[in-house]
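Support request, priority: normal
Reporter: lab tech (M.K.)
Component: structure prediction queue

Hi team, I submitted a job for Methyltransferase from Sorangium cellulosum yesterday, and the status page still shows it as pending. I've pasted the exact input below so you can check whether something in the sequence is tripping the parser. The sequence length should be 276 residues. Please let me know if I need to resubmit or if it's stuck on your end.
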Amino acid sequence: MSSHERDYVAINLANWNSRVPHHEQGYELHRFREDPRRLSDVVEFDRARLGDVRGLDVVHLQCHIGTDTLSLARLGARVTGLDFSEPALSVARRLAAECGADIEYVCSTVYDAVAALGAGRFDVVYTGVGALCWLDDIQRWAATVAALLKPGGRLFLREGHPMLWALAEPRPDGLLVVEYPYFKVEGGTLFHEKQTYVSHEGDLAAPDSISFNHGLGEIVTALFAANLRLTALTEHDSVPWNPLGDGMVQDERGEWRLRERPERLAATYTLQAVKG
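Reply from support: The job had stalled in the queue. We restarted it manually and it finished. Here are the results:
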């Protein structure tokens, strides 16, 4: 690991560790304990495109506290969750145990996933919204995905659209303004944010983070280079949290889209690719 990689990983690990107690409250984990059929809003949205995963070996990269991971298990998959935050995995393991779900959780960075989990083990690599922006090397990520998959295995990725990540914070005049890079920049972009994306009291103990935007062309090209064949790419006008304040409205599925003319913004996308 280079000194640059050590630096940004350490900063982001401290940031995500500090989010865990707030997310443990804000993710409404009691709803998963109380309802054995409960799925996360993210997986519920993905379900139609994801298809039948019963009996499949699925790895959820960057799984955080495991609500989406648990939801995949409830769809019948044999699921492994991987994340670099041990405090997050502690919550995920406890939630799985309380819900009677047999899920393996492994603490590792994405780049070390093959060493931690083994090559060629999985039918599906699943990655949810807000994951790729924490990785500086998308080619290395794509190669890792390919190495984890069995021959014919599938990547399922729903992610924030790089156009969304490039927008400025909410403005009083409601204008959408491009403020941050669409393309990856060396060193990433440093943010200092005292609050996370769920409502909570108090400030984050480690408010600094470094993120990296990756254009769609960069992502698709990296997948091609890793011998992953693109099978679907769908852009969506909605996102599962509110990044733009009063300019967005929530629908009955928990998704947020622009209040006025939502067709102006691709907020997320779903990408699927097959190995070989």
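DSSP finds nine helices and eleven strands in the chain. The chain has one domain: 3-275. Let us know if anything else looks off. Ticket resolved.
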